[in-house]
Amino acid sequence: MKRRSRYGIPRARTAAWALLASVLLALPAAGISADLPQMIRFSGPGIAGSLRLAGDMVDLASLMEAFGLRSSMDLMGDRMDIVGEGGSCRLLMDSPLILSRGLFTVLSGPVRSMGGNLALPLDFLTKGLPTLTGRDARFDPGASSLALGEKGSASFKGSDPDDLVRYASFIRRDQYVPEEKLREEPKGLSVVVLDPGHGGRSIGAQGSTGTLEKDLVLSVSEKLKRELEEGLGVKVVLTRTADYYVGLKERTAIANNNRADLFISIHANATFRREIEGFETYYLNFRSSDKEAGRYAEMENRALGVKGGADEEALLEAILWDMAQTSFLAQSSELASMVQDRLVKNVRGSDRGVRQAPLAVLMGARMPAALVEIGFISNPEQEVRLNRESYQAQIARSLYEAIEDYHRGLLRGEIKRGTD
Ligand SMILES: [Zn+2]
Predict the structure, then answer these.
(1) Which residues are close to ligand 1, an ion, with C-beta < 5 A?
(2) Do 11-159 and 181-411 fold alike per CATH?
(3) Rounded Cα–Cα distance for residues 332 and 283 (Å)
(4) 367 CA from centroid of ligand 1 (Å)
(5) 11-159, what's its fold?
(6) Cβ count near 91 (within 10 Å)
(7) Alpha carbon of 250 to ligand 1 centroid (Å)
């Protein structure tokens, strides 16, 4: 288990933000404080007033007063829901992430408690406030003024998926690494966990001539296991070794318990559009990189027993609280690219790219993780090929080469190892 602060945020992360915050707090003492304004004026159709600042942050109480917002804190004191005329959002203590309408937004810094009040980074005014007031907002830092639009003018789209990758790599960079660790020789991979998708009652996708995803992915995983053990001499653990069902949480738990260096989930795809074929590789993000990836995540999550709708909100929240995978997003993105590159280079099939989606199966993994779709069994031609030993061997070989690429990247120090 990762040790957590009382806010449920991994300690290392809290420490990183605390470090950042102490740097920011040190700035006024260095003489900049004289130039910092105390107030921000705001105005818009039918509304005007001012907001109090706390250092370089905006005071939440003054926001609530100015815009008639209501708030409720949960019992643990680690998150706060704020409701306004336009909608609601959730703040998380010590975290730069805000959740609104099922989407995350990354603020420039964490929400902090200052002298009994909560203070928010200034970009909350343009990234969070519009959701609450329903008004568009433009902030002019030079003039310390906030221009608000009419009621109903707000648009909210959440953060770019890449924001979270940047957020994650920022945290890693700032994490404290003991000096003796820095002097350690770079180490390659020693344990890899492969996750053949589905199994038992979960058959996964089905081809027109009866090919089942669960059988296909187990066969490829077994081939890959042999390749890795012989070629790289690493320990390989499969999350299932025959045709039985394994729960989503168990799959990542197997990887975590084995202290795996990599987790790769192997699936095959299907769609109503039979002409579609090829490979795609996913890594976890809270927001899908495109509509298709979003639909795909919904479908794959449902097939694996995660329901949609209200549960999806709960799921998003679960991701937030178990941010295990978040701190490996940069490495996971690298891994996914290596997998996709090798498949496209070696195996006949279209390049459908590296994508990001909120995939339930990757969420709890405390190591770099990716999910690869080794083909569409809904495409009659690819279904035939996928059933061939030689084609399966080519796929396994390509995945092996990708993992070897990653291994060499670690040895050369080009890929940073996680410190989890
Ligand atoms: Zn699947």
Answers:
(1) 197, 204, 267
(2) no
(3) 6
(4) 21
(5) Copper Amine Oxidase; Chain A, domain 1 (3.30.457)
(6) 24
(7) 16
What is the CA(300)–ligand 1 centre distance, in A?
6
- Rounded to a whole number of angstroms, the distance between the first and last alpha carbons of the chain is 10
CA 250 from chain center: how many Å? 19
CA of 50 to the centre of ligand 1 (A): 53
Q: What is the pLDDT along the chain (420 residues), one digit of tens a residue?
A: 334 433 333 444 444 444 444 444 444 443 344 455 689 999 999 999 999 988 889 999 999 999 999 988 766 566 788 999 998 888 877 777 787 776 677 788 888 887 778 899 999 999 899 999 999 999 998 888 999 999 988 876 666 656 655 555 444 433 444 445 555 667 899 999 999 999 999 999 999 999 999 999 999 999 999 999 999 999 999 999 999 998 887 898 899 889 899 999 999 999 889 999 999 999 987 667 788 888 887 777 776 665 545 455 555 555 554 456 777 888 999 999 999 999 999 999 999 999 988 787 887 788 999 999 999 999 999 999 999 999 999 999 999 999 999 999 999 988 877 544
Please state which CATH number belongs to domain 181-411.
3.40.630.40
Its sign, for the CA torsion 221, 341, 287, 93, is: positive
Every domain of the chain and the residues it spans: 11-159, 181-411
Instruction: State the amino acid at position 376 in one-letter form.
Output: F
